[in-house]
């Protein structure tokens, strides 16, 4: 034994001389000699690392570097985090390059850290989150990511003498491509960049370490430097008092106690199996796994044409009675709600207070952004409008009348008053003065809403689309009546109409494929009229069709049909029907029967019907609605998809009837879910391929649910990210319906910043029902401030006179605009026009002395801005591959420098700078869309 110890000391000396790079060799040698402490070989993970959509593309190198560093770790999927316990029970949590957290996740992180958790983060952590989240993260981390550096910089300690003992190790300082951190205190930075003014590169607090670069990215820095900093930070945060627990108080286990990181679930694309994360799976409720006696009664709602003999023998998955289910679109709920009830003195939680304060600041930003856009739009010459720009340096009194007759203060005064209320809100909440806090908040919101410039043009080229619903079409009654609707839409500036063409298996036109036209429009062809009327007004007409929803009980009432009538197609083809696990064609509590997407005859019928639409009528596009299964909840015993064809095909593939499996059969259940999802995916691909063969310039859009991807696949088998990435669709229209702007933003934001949509354009949907006029405009302004190319309004029946007037004023054709491009039809022209307007905003701000840049910076800024304008204009005038490459390169250069030029402005006016960055991102997306669509068509 003595001899072995001597050997150990000799080996240790040699390894120490070899340095940090062979850290893992020490572990292996000690283990092979059998003298490693017993508890070290079986050590629990010391670190939880967060996997998210933001770092998914870097996951392979992140895990490579973790394992090379000898760090035992668990993985937490960010999408699963809802409470403090979800952050796990490890002492240290690592957030590598996670830019998006929800308010609930940030608040949960704060509470988790208060119970003993320590945080390591890297990159622009939280930078794409809501402002309130960013502010909270600044407090937790002691600083925040300011802006990216333009080139690689040398990382060095703050002083000649290292500030802390934990930094006394080799490999910490070298070349890195990172960003400047803004520290909350002078003592926070422990490493700086070797640049002018020595900006912070690493910031620490007692509970956190923030690294000013994207950890685990090969183009950023070396693996050795990354590993050195992570090990040093872990060592720092693991220095606990002798009596301290290794785990965090109240934390749930973040993964199994294992020394190995093995593939457990959800393999990540392109990542070797050995490096896949351990992502904990939720434990099913025991109640949810208890089988019940199979139900043997026949289907509750067979078609009137006769009994369906292919219905499954029902087998409930769990012993529960399905609850009454509203339409799925009404089931979207928000984690943070801003339902402010006047005079209520109910307590306001910390998270709600942060959200309320931030929403006021965001609303101020939207008001100011709208005024800048209006000033630019009013004249092509910024000099003539600079002195009339409210919200900047001048007053604007009473531009819109107050219904109450109260004099409206000018914008500067209103904004100042709102800022003061926002500033004082936390103090009122801390004092328990909840009623006054709510009163002040509502006062500020009402005051700001009255400052929107609703009386002047301000919109740039964008997709302005609206759903023209069946009820409104029928009430029009004739082409003359329909012409009045299209006149109103044209005056309101609408350029794209989603015309309800196929509803509940009834086409709105006389079809030679479908069994019968909608009885309420017989003797008239509304689709032919709509195409003619739209094109005469310079608008696009897209045929809006229901796909897998076969009927509608509400429609049956209008047509005097029996309530359980399944529609003309299913009545004639009962084998095409789909079923739930209890044998119902119409799911309990819902109103629509569905087709079986796996049925080949049904698919061919639908394709033939769509081909009829795009060949007989010069529609500009087709929109697929109900391109999914009905709303389900496996945990509550509501599952759908057991059509005859689906059961037969799945049984041929797996040897198991899907009706005999349940969510407790994890592997088979995942296969069953994937099978159903693939039926929808493959049909979208088939529609795209066949219809584009008929009409190469056809625009294909989809109306989809904005649920998280995993939840959406489980509940409705709708994985529209796949359709977007594969190029099967041109526009994604998520139904982001909400009654207030913060809720709307929370629904839309994940998809707006998503990197999973390829070159497909995103067009958020706004539901006009029950929205006040200014509330609808507020949501539109948010869309214009985000990196998207337009919006979709649901629906024409809710477009009242007041809202129509606002649209006519702000985006309509009071003064006809010549050849205003539509983004999905003319992406390069749209990019050039939108960028020209953006340049005018910068000129306007500069003339008002609102841009904080030196004379040298302004000169360089103007030079590169003009260079980009030239490149975009040349591409728009004569598209080609070479001009596209030049424009893309110019835009990339400009974007890389923009944050540096705007670093001071970002501190003074963060909302507006973010808006400008978003508009540059919109131009980038338009170029990407144009590359896929236009360049391929001209053979470049």
From TrEMBL:
Alphabetized UniProt keyword annotations: Signal
Protein's UniProt keywords contain Lipoprotein: no
One Pfam family in the UniProt entry: GHL10
Annotated stretches, region: Disordered: 265-315
Ranges for domain Glycosyl hydrolase-like: 462-767
Record's keyword annotation contains Signal: yes
Signal peptide: 1-40
Residue stretches of biased makeup (Polar residues): 286-295, 303-312
PANTHER family, per database record: GLYCOSYL HYDROLASE DIGH
Protein's name according to its UniProt entry: Family 10 glycosylhydrolase
Organism: Calothrix parietina FACHB-288
């Amino acid at each position: 034994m003595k001899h072995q110890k001597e050997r150990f000391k000799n080996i240790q000396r040699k390894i120490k001389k070899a340095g940090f790079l062979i850290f893992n060799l020490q572990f292996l040698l000690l283990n092979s000699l059998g003298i490693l402490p017993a508890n070290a070989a079986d050590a629990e993970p010391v670190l939880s690392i967060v996997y998210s959509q933001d770092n998914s593309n870097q996951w392979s190198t992140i895990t490579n570097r973790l394992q090379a560093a000898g760090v035992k770790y668990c993985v937490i999927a960010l999408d699963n985090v809802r409470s403090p316990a979800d952050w796990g029970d490890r002492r240290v949590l690592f957030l590598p390059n996670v830019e998006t957290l929800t308010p609930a996740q940030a608040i949960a992180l704060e509470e988790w850290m208060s119970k003993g958790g320590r945080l390591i983060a890297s990159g622009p952590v939280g930078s794409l989150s809501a402002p309130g989240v960013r502010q909270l993260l600044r407090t937790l981390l002691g600083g925040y990511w300011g802006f990216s550096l333009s080139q690689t910089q040398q990382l060095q300690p703050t002083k000649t003498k290292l500030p802390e003992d934990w930094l006394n190790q080799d490999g910490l300082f070298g070349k890195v491509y990172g960003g400047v951190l803004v520290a909350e205190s002078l003592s926070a930075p422990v490493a700086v960049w070797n640049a002018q003014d020595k900006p912070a590169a690493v910031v620490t607090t007692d509970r956190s370490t923030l690294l000013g670069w994207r950890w685990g990215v090969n183009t950023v820095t070396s693996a050795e430097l990354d590993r050195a900093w992570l090990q040093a930070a872990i060592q720092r945060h693991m220095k606990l008092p002798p009596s301290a627990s290794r785990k965090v108080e109240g934390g749930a286990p973040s993964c199994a106690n294992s020394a190995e990181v093995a593939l457990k679930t959800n393999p990540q694309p392109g990542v070797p199996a050995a490096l896949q994360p351990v992502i904990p799976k939720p434990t099913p409720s025991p109640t949810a796994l208890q089988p019940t006696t199979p139900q043997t009664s026949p289907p509750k709602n067979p078609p009137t044409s006769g009994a369906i003999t292919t219905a499954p023998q029902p087998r409930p998955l769990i012993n529960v009675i399905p609850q009454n289910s509203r339409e799925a679109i009404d089931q979207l709920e928000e984690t943070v709600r801003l339902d402010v009830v006047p005079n209520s003195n109910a307590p306001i939680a910390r998270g709600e207070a942060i959200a309320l304060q931030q929403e006021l600041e965001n609303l101020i930003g939207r008001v100011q952004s709208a005024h800048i856009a209006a000033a630019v739009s009013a004249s092509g010459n910024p000099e003539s409008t600079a002195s009339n720009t409210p919200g900047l340096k001048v007053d604007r009194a009473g531009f819109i009348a107050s219904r109450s007759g109260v004099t409206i203060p000018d914008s500067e005064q209103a904004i100042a008053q709102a800022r003061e209320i926002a500033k004082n809100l936390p103090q009122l909440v801390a004092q328990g003065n909840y009623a006054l806090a709510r009163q002040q908040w509502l006062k500020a919101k009402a005051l700001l809403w009255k400052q929107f410039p609703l009386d002047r043009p301000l919109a740039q080229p964008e997709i302005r689309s609206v759903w023209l619903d069946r009820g409104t079409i029928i009430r029009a009654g004739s082409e003359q009546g329909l012409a009045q609707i299209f006149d109103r839409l044209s005056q309101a500036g609408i350029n794209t109409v989603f015309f309800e063409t196929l509803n509940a298996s009834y086409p709105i036109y006389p079809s030679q494929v479908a069994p019968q036209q909608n009885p309420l429009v017989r003797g008239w062809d509304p689709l032919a009229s709509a195409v003619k009327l739209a094109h005469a007004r310079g608008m696009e007409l897209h045929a809006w069709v229901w796909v897998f929803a076969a009927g509608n009980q509400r429609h049956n009432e209008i047509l005097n049909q029996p309530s359980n009538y399944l529609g003309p197609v299913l009545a004639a083809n009962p084998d095409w029907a789909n079923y739930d696990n209890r044998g119902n064609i119409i799911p309990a509590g819902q109103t629509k029967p569905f087709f079986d997407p796996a049925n080949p005859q049904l698919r061919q019928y639908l394709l033939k019907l769509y081909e009829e639409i795009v060949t007989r009528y010069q529609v500009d596009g087709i929109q697929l609605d109900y391109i999914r299964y009905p709303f389900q909840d496996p945990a509550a015993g509501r599952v759908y998809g057991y059509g005859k064809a689906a059961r037969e095909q799945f049984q041929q593939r797996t040897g198991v009837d899907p009706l005999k499996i349940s969510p407790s059969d994890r592997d088979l259940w995942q296969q069953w879910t994937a099978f159903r999802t693939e039926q929808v995916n493959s049909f979208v691909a088939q529609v795209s391929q066949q219809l584009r063969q008929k009409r190469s310039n056809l625009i294909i859009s989809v109306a989809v649910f904005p649920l998280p991807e995993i939840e959406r696949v489980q509940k409705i088998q709708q994985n529209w990210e796949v359709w977007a990435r594969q190029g099967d669709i041109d526009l994604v229209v998520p139904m982001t319906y909400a009654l207030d702007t913060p809720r709307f933003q929370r629904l839309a934001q994940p998809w707006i910043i998503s990197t999973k949509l390829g070159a497909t354009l995103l067009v958020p949907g706004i539901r006009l029902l029950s929205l006040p006029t200014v509330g609808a405009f507020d949501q539109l302004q948010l869309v214009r401030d985000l990196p998207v190319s337009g919006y979709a309004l649901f629906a024409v029946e809710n477009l009242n006179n007041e809202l129509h007037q606002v649209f006519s004023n702000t985006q309509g054709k009071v003064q006809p605009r010549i050849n205003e491009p539509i983004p999905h039809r003319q992406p390069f022209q749209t990019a050039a026009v939108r960028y020209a307007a953006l340049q005018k905003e910068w000129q306007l701000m500069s003339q008002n002395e609102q841009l904080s840049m030196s004379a040298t910076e302004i000169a360089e800024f103007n030079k590169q801005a003009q260079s980009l304008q030239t490149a975009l204009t040349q591409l728009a005038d004569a598209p080609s591959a070479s001009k596209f490459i030049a424009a893309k390169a110019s835009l990339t250069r400009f974007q890389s420098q923009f944050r540096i030029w705007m670093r001071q402005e970002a501190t003074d006016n963060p909302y507006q700078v973010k808006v400008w960055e978003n508009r540059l991102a919109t131009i980038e997306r338009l170029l990407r869309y144009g590359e896929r669509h236009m360049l391929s068509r001209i053979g470049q």
